[in-house]
Amino acid sequence: MHPQRLGYREIAAALRQDIRAGRYPPASVLPPEPELAQQYGASRSLVNRAMSLLAAEGLVRPRQGRGTIVTWLPPMLHSAARYSRTTRERDGNRGAFDSDVKAIGLEPQHEITVERAVPPAEVADALGVAHDELCLVRRRRLLASGIPVRINASWFPLEIAESTVLEEPGPVINGGIKSALSNLGYRQTTASERIVPSRLPTEAEASVLEISPERSVTEIVHVGQTAEGRSVEVTTTVAPAHYLVIEHEFPLT
Amino acid sequence: MHPQRLGYREIAAALRQDIRAGRYPPASVLPPEPELAQQYGASRSLVNRAMSLLAAEGLVRPRQGRGTIVTWLPPMLHSAARYSRTTRERDGNRGAFDSDVKAIGLEPQHEITVERAVPPAEVADALGVAHDELCLVRRRRLLASGIPVRINASWFPLEIAESTVLEEPGPVINGGIKSALSNLGYRQTTASERIVPSRLPTEAEASVLEISPERSVTEIVHVGQTAEGRSVEVTTTVAPAHYLVIEHEFPLT
DNA sequence: GAGTGGTCTAGACCACAGA
DNA sequence: CTGTGGTCTAGACCACTCG
Hints:
2 domains, 9 strands, homodimer, Arc Repressor Mutant, subunit A, six-stranded antiparallel beta sheet, Chorismate lyase, 253 residues, alpha+beta, DNA-binding
């Protein structure tokens, strides 16, 4: 099949190209490693090492006993402007996510849970609540044909969110979270974001996103404030690195 | 030395901890792989695989014949607010970078080149010039004790920058680029940025940043515009992923 | 049970840097 | 020349999934 002996980087490159070219579509299963080894005239160890590269890049997700699933999603999903401020505020990206995923022939899925919990210290500080204070948290997990693409957690002080529309379970809040908060008398006028482009996932994140522990993630922490300077919403986003592109625009003084 | 047999992830974890704890400081050289193999009671193959993990994370840079150099830099350099808008505009981050690097006991270095070149299509489009039009480009490479930390390229239309202070070589432009452009009659009022948190480097980038091809990078494309909507400056930043943290604040409408 | 990926070894050869 | 990391093999055993 392949005339020359290839190195594991070259095997990875070949598979990478096949995947991006659509020869192995997203959510499909790659041929087993022994078969690929034969195709490329290499040992299975070598193919396995090539696979580790692709897994770390996020193109692929090997699972013991089940085979290796293609987790690469074409640029459409990452691409520009969709995650811009206006869209995000309008509907929490739900619509944009759904149409992006459908556009590449996959099935968008949402999992939403609403609960009361003590936020991590970083979030508590941003919200200005005590480290042991219960808050309301709305968690979402977005998937494309079973591939986890992003997780969100939106935190609100109980004082604000208790027994409001925010505490209702269900996939959509009419007009979005910021609109709902505004109706409750907490209109946000400024927001700040901290972006960590790449870090290793926590164990919990790796498990929920179904990625290997060495696959890095991008984290965005969004804090919304009212005109009085009160932080009323902290939303954290964690996605496997490369599933996100971020755009923003700002005035220069 | 180590009672139990460790897996390569565990060996990597042990080394990771040692590095972060300062047992192997930045820019120092790790013990050779055979020695580590003996320490951990494992084969060299295993240690080598652990090293691949650390290299992909960017904690370490193994070089044939020379040994494995620690390239991890403590959070101080990444940490918040330093790369915020105000600082970046003030002095192109030069001061902040120098003091960050010195604070961890390393030597900051800058390499600056100024030349005329045809920009990549993406930059040409952003500047609104033809794809074959010569532009002025100021390139910088920032290093900490020989470890490349970041590369920048600032592009300007020749029409604006020809024979101005922007074309002078040398490390600093008094007051920064935006100030210089303002003095030339091109005051910027808005900027937009596109952030690609994680992607594989081009060959050229991997070479200039001295990273392996599978070590991902973060890219920021910054476009500055005048009140008339003319793009007068495009600055691209590429850094090994995890050397950057980004913060910004914006008004909500 | 059969087939998948996950891990590991022992040893080998190579490319490169430096004394 | 020696010692470094880079690559590769052949084979082994394990853990997991599914029929």
